[in-house]
Design brief:
This protein has 225 residues and is α/β, with parallel strands linked by helices. It has two domains: 43 residues, no CATH class; 165 residues, Rossmann fold. Helices cover 30% and strands 32% of the residues. The chain is built from six helices and twelve strands. A six-stranded mixed β-sheet has the order 8-7-6-9-10-11, sandwiched between helices. Strand 6, helix 1 and strand 7 form a beta-alpha-beta unit. The N terminus is likely disordered.
């Protein structure tokens, strides 16, 4: 009788490799699916693909005061939860121009410093910010997401929608959270799907940004034989 040994990889995701003394009898179980060799030795290698998300934060003049503080708090909570979901988090702010503040990172201290330094001034050049995030997310082998937090309409809604469409063509998901003068229908059009575009009251703006982490898709993974 062949002796069996089992190695459980990531119990939460239900991935199990069972190997007998006979190398041709290796099976891999993922949830309810089992991969088995067909009459010849096989080898299985798991490759975890990376996941990246950019937080795009509105820092236009209308965000001054409590709204910007809410956005900062929400951004910090979002990042912490995104880390737990195995996402690296990048940061871009936008007012009259867009500013690239941080490449996707797992360093909460670095993000915290950049978030703290954000201040409100100028207009709302959302299109430039989306394009900037898109340019930094040209990673076809990774899960890619943009989360936009804003309190109003952009300087040029047509250009913002155009840049969002370009990003979505490259399989980048877009999640939008708006408050105050933001237009809910515009937020839905900007997002990958209508349900990923949400407008909330100012009082829960921070919570809505933080909760956007619940909408992040699971990082992709591939299995190779």
């Amino acid at each position: 009788m062949l002796k069996e040994t089992a190695l459980l990889i990531n119990k939460k995701k239900g991935v199990e490799i069972v190997k007998t003394d006979d190398s041709s009898r290796i099976s891999v179980t993922i949830g309810n699916t089992t991969l088995k060799p067909q009459g010849h030795p096989t080898s299985v290698r798991f490759e975890k693909q990376t996941a990246h998300v950019y937080l795009i934060m509105d820092t236009s003049g209308s965000m001054v005061g409590d709204k910007l503080e809410q956005a900062k708090n929400g951004a910090m909570d979002f990042a912490k939860d995104a880390f737990r979901k195995e996402y690296a988090v990048g940061l871009i702010s936008f007012n009259t121009t867009a500013r690239h503040l941080c490449e996707p990172t797992y360093d909460i201290g670095l993000l915290k410093n950049q978030i703290r330094e954000m201040h409100a001034t100028g207009s709302t050049n959302m299109a430039e910010a989306i394009k900037m995030a898109h340019d930094h997310l040209r990673r076809p082998d990774s899960t890619q997401v943009i989360v936009i937090a804003t309190d109003g309409l952009p300087d040029n809604a047509h250009d913002a929608l155009k840049e969002a469409t370009n990003a979505k063509k490259d399989k980048i998901d877009i999640i939008t959270i708006g408050t105050d003068d933001a237009d809910q229908e515009f937020l839905k059009r900007l997002a990958t799907r209508a349900e990923l575009g949400k407008k909330v009251t100012r009082e829960v703006f921070s919570q809505a940004i933080s909760s956007a982490s619940n909408l992040l898709p699971p990082p992709k993974s591939i299995t190779k034989r």
